């Protein structure tokens, strides 16, 4: 049997995250969501955009996940740092080619030891609700979410 490299999250985990995140969004009656799952190397592992999700939601969701993964910090901590250090966040945005979105809704997906396996970004409703769905998805995959706040 051939062995293939895995860069963090598996495709099955990514699909579980998306399905559970979308289910939580429907349970809460949220606006249509777009869910992006990045692997540990920052590459898109899986993405789904619900019917009715607006045009830039994929970019915003990817930016939330990318920002969290780029600095190894959940979106809540990135938002705090954006408030406290706008110059740094502007530089980060420039360095990242505008791809980092420092707000809640970008959540790191970690194993039981805290090793970052990837990140989830969701956009569609208010950021706090997007984050609730990301956490639900990550937990459904048997992983530990890191939102940037203490657990």
Automatic annotation (TrEMBL):
Entries under InterPro entries matching the protein: GlcG_carb_metab_protein (IPR052517), PduO/GlcC-like (IPR005624), PduO/GlcC-like_sf (IPR038084)
Coiled coil: none
Pfam families linked: HbpS-like
Superkingdom: Bacteria
Name of the protein this chain belongs to: Heme-binding protein
Species assigned in the record: Paracraurococcus lichenis
């Amino acid at each position: 049997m051939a062995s293939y490299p895995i860069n963090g999250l598996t495709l099955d985990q990514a699909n579980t995250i998306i399905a559970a995140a979308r289910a939580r969004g429907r349970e809460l009656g949220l606006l249509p969501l777009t869910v992006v799952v990045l692997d540990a190397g920052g590459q898109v592992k899986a993405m789904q955009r619900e019917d009715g999700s607006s045009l830039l939601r994929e970019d915003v969701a990817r930016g939330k996940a990318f920002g969290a993964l780029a600095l190894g910090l959940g979106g809540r901590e990135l938002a705090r740092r954006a408030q406290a250090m706008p110059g740094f966040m502007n530089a980060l945005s420039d360095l990242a080619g505008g791809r980092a979105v420092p707000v809640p809704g970008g959540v790191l997906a970690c194993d039981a030891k805290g090793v970052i396996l990837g990140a989830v970004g969701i956009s569609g409703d208010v950021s706090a609700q997007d984050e609730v769905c990301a956490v639900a998805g990550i937990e459904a995959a048997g992983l530990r979410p890191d939102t940037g706040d203490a657990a």
